[in-house]
Amino acid sequence: MSTPRARRTSAPNKVLVTFLLLALSVIGFQAFVGPSVLPIVPADRPHEFANGLGVRLLSIAHTHEGGEHLVTWSVELHNPGDTDLVLDPTTACRHVMPPEDVGTPGSPMEHTESVVVPAGQVTYWSDSCPSPDSGRWWAYTVRFDDPTEEHRYPPLTLLGRAH
């Protein structure tokens, strides 16, 4: 009589379970601490808003600049429309495990410069926030405001790990 073998969990299943747990922790954290920040997008997937504006995370990197440890997010913004988009970004960074704000706690960071995405083109944009070390899971929330108020964009949260 043979003994039953323990079932092994495959690597893709572990990644999926990890992502789901991280997403649920961010959603739960936001429900208790601040406004909802849906949609939540994994680092390897693009997101498209209702007017077609596309956002894709290109990289999350842990860097050391001027004696400060930072995590830097680089995103690609794609405008398939026929008019230029001027966007005013507001961002926030959070460690996912354990969930905590970094930078100015509880305060989104407004940027002084607008991001212009020409009609039918792609623009690249980067942002940084303080980071204690590499290898951490992050939730990076960005909200683009349209100064003309023609388009409305809900906050978008990107999940990923900085290396």
Present the secondary structure layout.
Elements: H1 11-33, E1 40-42, E2 47-48, E3 54-65, E4 68-79, E5 85-95, E6 100-101, E7 109-110, E8 115-117, E9 121-130, E10 137-145, E11 156-161
Parallel strand pairs: 1-11
Antiparallel strand pairs: 2-3, 3-4, 4-9, 5-6, 5-7, 5-8, 5-10, 10-11
Short descriptors:
mainly beta; Immunoglobulin-like; 7-stranded mixed beta sheet; 11 strands; globular
CATH homologous superfamily, by name?
Immunoglobulins
Question: What is the gyration radius calculated from CA atoms?
Answer: 18 Å
What fold name stands as the CATH topology?
A: Immunoglobulin-like
Q: How many separate helices?
A: 1
> What fraction of residues sit in β-strands?
35-45%
The poorly predicted ranges are 29-37
First-residue to last-residue Cα separation = 48 Å
Structural class: mainly beta
Order of helices and strands: HEEEEEEEEEEE
| Coarse shape | globular
Second rung of CATH, namely the architecture: Sandwich
Mean pLDDT: 77
Can you tell me the CATH class? Mainly Beta
- State the domain count: 1
Helix content: 10-25%
Give a count of the beta strands, DSSP E runs of length 2 or more.
11
Largest sheet: 7 strands, mixed
